[in-house]
Amino acid sequence: QGVFAVRIDDGALTWIGEPAGIPVWSPSDESIAWGNEDGLFLRALNDAGPRRMSDSPIAGVPAWSPDGKSLAYIDRDRAALVVVAVDSRVEQFSQPLDHRRTASARFPLLTLGGPAWAPDGSRLAYVCWDGVGDEICLIDSDGTGWRQVTRLERPTAVSEGGTQRSALAASNAGPPAWSPDGNLLAVAAYPERPGGSTGVFLVNPDEGMGRRISSLQPNSVISWSPSGGSVIFSAFRRGRSDVFRVVLANYTQQRVTEALPEASRNPAFSPDGSRIAVESGGGIVVLGRQGPAQAFRVADLRGSYPAWSPDGTTIALAATIDPISSYN
User: Fold this and answer.
1) Going along 123-259, which residue ranges are E strands?
2) Disulfide engineering: 226 pairs with which of 187, 214, 273, 320, CB 3.0-4.6 Å?
3) Paired strand residues for 255
4) How confident is the model over 125-141, as a mean pLDDT?
5) What is the pLDDT at residue 14?
6) How far is 214 from 252, CA to CA, in rounded Å?
7) Is pTM, for the whole model, over 0.85?
8) Burial of 1 by CB count in 10 Å (0-12 exposed, 13-18 middle, 19+ buried)?
């Protein structure tokens, strides 16, 4: 098990490192970062092996700064956003996910997605906690200028046996994704009670206003096309998981993977937007505008979470033992 890279032209596999985690490519060189309960790891393809950037368990997925000099991640033990310099491993700043000074209660941490850098590197968007539910917060790349962007419907207290227990949030916000021009955030909303907001929204980060573009609930992160003209994500509908694309010019919704015999998840656009890599049938399938689909597998392991290299020639993936490959 571990992180692997596969070349698209010939299917050649390269072992990157272990333990397994969701990989993310550096935008500036051939380096891959990933995190899990064992810490934060990084390996350049020309290095002898991975190096550990942090011993703290990581919640969700780390994020590279646009210049490739910093990594942002969620420290599970500290329940905080942390930004660290790649070369020196020096922590640049941290920010608690619960910004209230009186915060003491523990809250669930995301396992889907992670923090997101604005395309110009000036600020970060991430899932924070406001004492009731998950929301989206922004912070400048120097650790200043924190503010909460979203405020989903206020909670309703729940009555049990004549007494009231803690209120439930109407909805929780999922991990944000910046548009290529940095003007919008794509955010999923997951309802906690009937009537709560659900679906995929485009949010203006400066105004906090959002518009729903799909009623589906993503089971993956949301990805933008390089042109900014559409977003993709996977969602469960009609008995299986499929990848859906929403064209923003007219808000039409397309099911991208209906021709695949197996369910699919975790789509990723290629850097030029001409191909989409998805997790399907225990491996990675690459779909193009023309020509047949390409399938890649790691023998005896389940491949997941495809991530494209900046030049579009290679896909990194997590490969783990399939826990339900056989049973009696």
Assistant:
1) 123-129, 134-140, 147-148, 156-160, 163-168, 171-173, 177-178, 185-191, 199-203, 210-214, 223-224, 230-237, 240-247, 252-255
2) 273
3) 244
4) 93
5) 94
6) 9
7) yes
8) middle
